[in-house]
Amino acid sequence: MSVLLKKNFPGSIRSVGEEISARLKKGEADSFMYVVPTKRKLRDIQREFFRQVPNQTAPEFFLFTLETLSVQLHRMLCPPKRIVSSPAQAVLMRQAIDGVADELRYFHFRGVNRQLPKGTFERIVNVINTLKSHGVYPAVLYAEIESAEEDDRARLQDFLRIYEEYERRLGASFIDGAGILKELNERWDGNLVSGAFRRVFPEVATVFVSGFDEFSDPELTMLHHVSELQACGMVVEFET
Fold first, then answer.
1. Which residues of 177-205 are buried (b: 16+ CB within 10 A; e: fewer)?
2. Cα separation values, 6 from 22, 119, 227, Å
3. Which of 58, 167, 198, 214 sits CB 3.0–4.6 Å from 53 for a disulfide?
4. SS3 at position 83
5. Model confidence pLDDT, tens digit, residues 27-51
């Protein structure tokens, strides 16, 4: 079962799938953008769309994940930056840890090279990525440290030191996936984005979002911004 939420969408709609299928059969593939949860789902949808369009020919479909949509919108609004890959992020994170090593109290180094155990390092990377992707930025951690129990305070302070040093090393030239959403939302200017959006997607009248059961706060903020673009409606179909 699914729940539909609409904004600036004229008329009725029974399901996202039915609405998209009707548009494809009428040759209106350029009238909508479709956002799905994963790149695998995106590839499956693309094959399905080709089977539905007349003569199996169509202009490029505007298919995105939340990640690729954020990258597209970021390019429209923000200064260009290099997106760091997972290996590059690991290098930056190790440099960040080394940079604050003398300040850490909770995490302990091993051996003459003073390296963190592999599992500990991976946990630090995962925790910081999770915090950032959910919109928990250093300012929030400062507030949590103030109210934390004594046993948790050293751990949170170490995470905060590493997090801030990692952000410093990203600097003005590099950015990670969660950082794209953060910067996009902070810099959002509806008028600027609407003009750039129309130059890239001149006929898009609806953004369909389907297949999700939850969104992070930064993702919701981005979707809210997109829903307010000029002459563009949105339909979100939640899985329940």
1. bbbbbbbbbeebeeeebbebbeeebeebb
2. 18, 44, 9
3. 58
4. strand
5. 899 999 999 999 999 999 999 998 8
